[in-house]
Amino acid sequence: MSVEVPSRGSDAAPTAPVNRVRQLLRGPRPEAVPVLVGRACALVGVLDIAAGVFPRFRHSRMHAIAEVLPGALGPFAAALSLSTGVLLLLLAHGLKRGKRRAWRAAVALLPAGAVAQFTYRHSLIGVLISLALLAPLLLHRDQFDALPDPRSRWRALANFVLMSAGSLMLGLLIVSVHSERIVGDPSLADRITHVIYGLFGFEGPVDYQGTTSWTVAFSLGALGLLTAVTTIYLAFRPEHPAARLTEDDETRLRALLERHGDRDSLGHFALRRDKAVVFSPSGKAAVTYRVVSGVMLASGDPIGDVEAWPGAIEQFMDEAKAHSWTPAVMGCSETGGQVWTRETGLDALELGDEAVVDVADFSLAGRAMRNVRQMVKRIERAGYETRVRRVRDLGEAELDRVRRAADDWRGTDTERGFSMALGRIGDPADGDCLIATAHKQDDHPGEYGDLKAILHFVPWGTDGASLDLMRRDRSADPGMNELLIVAALQAAPKLGITRVSLNFAMFRAALARGEKIGAGPVLRAWRGLLVFLSRWFQIESLYKFNAKFRPRWEPRFVVYRASADLPRIGFAAMQAEGFVNLALPLPRFLRRRGPAGRRPCPHGTTAERNVRAA
User: Fold this and answer.
1) 324: helix, coil or strand?
2) Which terminus of the chain is more solvent-facing, meaning fewer CB atoms within 10 Å of its CB: N or C?
């Protein structure tokens, strides 16, 4: 007697549709509501703008009745619909991130958009779409509890520029869409003039038949008023300053570095004063970060006792959740990456390798060091000499000269570096830092005398140093960086330094493996792309520069939440490192000039192209 056992698939087939129906009835997961509502809000905003710009977007039987009603209800409703649509588009991003203020504004604006849809377009569908969006907003209001981002007065200027440009383009569309009612044939210049006048509330040179001129006038006036109101609000609202380390925070971080600074070569860079910090509940560990474009960007490993890292990481993630920031870590070590991924469920991706030279193993002898040896000998024969000292051993006058020279030789208007740069030289609290300088006596010395190049190192525990920046006079001979690195490595034993961290080489493994025999087509294609990008970001040149000194390579990782976040994290990292600057450029006559009226070179010096965080 045989018993027929039903297959697993026969049970799954009828239950699958049932599960889908149950999922639809339950609705989306609460944590997914902000993203869905933000997208729907953007769609409603586009519909509202279309209703305001295109009055015949949808014909209805009530249109004839509305035209004979007293007053100017139609033009007013068009302006209201247009304003509501623009504001909803502006709020969509905040809603996706679960911002409480964006939620409040959307709850107030959606009914206004529904009224405009009905009174101007008489569209029941438009009304239903606007009002239907209120249901998830009110039902899941607890998902919109994110705190506001840090802000400054520059946000008002950016809003004015962007809103003005958008209002000009949208206004030109409004003026042109009523072509069948325009009197005459005004030129493009006349239409632009009409838009500009209309944004300020004045009548322009374009005339229309019937009441269309009122509709256009109210719509342009609404755009101008919206630009003015949002700019004034952003300019006069309370300012939240950018991240800054307090004196107490810096004191606590330095105490942690004294006890645990040997672990990570990037530890001292946590003392940048444009970073914020969160400490573990025990105070034995900390994570420093900066918020850039909605990304909460940490760098390196947490500071302090490894056993206390999970507590600091938990505080970091709680802060990111409270503000709806995207958490990310740039340049953590393998140990740090393991702790981050274990404690948070985030993913890690190898970003590149750090070049570390063991001082005891370094020598200029041998065929492998032939090029470096010849370059150093040639420069020394040209009359250059080097000095390697602690910052505390420099006099105030010489230290001031080094600071001014480093600033003038920077090569770009923007100070670069975040994860692997300290951002200052010669601070009294940084007496353990190293400065290597190159000097040459000239018949006609410049403003900085015989000073020709500078290397700055920060402490890596008690027996290490980590390269911070490299700067040189543009008139100096090539090879200053090689000369000073060799000088620092040779002077290291006298200073009690046994290891030196040099530049970070992004995607080094791909560059190294891709040029070897037997590399596959995918790896070769990836290396080719990196070589192509090196025209702008010096990826290959930094790798080759580091490889000259025969270092050991320590991998560094980026930690992220989802693959979809990587482009955003990459863009935020480029902003933090100074490679992308969204600030509005100053007029040419307001830019800082160097000595003797020279402007900084926009392309950067060789030292700047070799800067650590490239």
Assistant:
1) coil
2) N
**Bridge partners of 466?**
458, 501
Of the chain, the percentage scoring pLDDT greater than 70 comes to 77
Calpha distance 454→439 (Å, rounded):
10
Q: Which candidate, 35, 150, 155, 133, places its Cα nearest to that of 84?
A: 133
The whole-angstrom distance between residue 166's C-alpha and the CA centroid of its chain comes to 23
Residue 153 vs residues 91, 240, 342, 575: alpha-carbon distances, Å:
19, 9, 39, 19
Report residue 579 as tokens.
Answer: 């490679």
CB 388 within 8 A of CB 377: no
C-alpha distance from residue 157 to each of 85, 153, 607 (Å)? 22, 7, 34
Q: Which of these, 535, 562, 537, 531, lies nearest to 613 by C-alpha position? A: 537
Task: Kindly report, residue by residue over 350-391, the tens digit of the pLDDT.
Answer: 988 999 999 999 999 988 899 999 999 999 999 899 999 999
> 3-class SS at 448?
coil
pTM given for the model: 0.68
Q: Which two tokens stand for residue 554?
A: 């320590």
Buried b (16+ CB within 10 A) or exposed e, 177-206: ebeeebeeebeeeebbbbbbbbbeeeebeb
Closest to 549 measured CA to CA, from 455, 485, 608, 479: 485
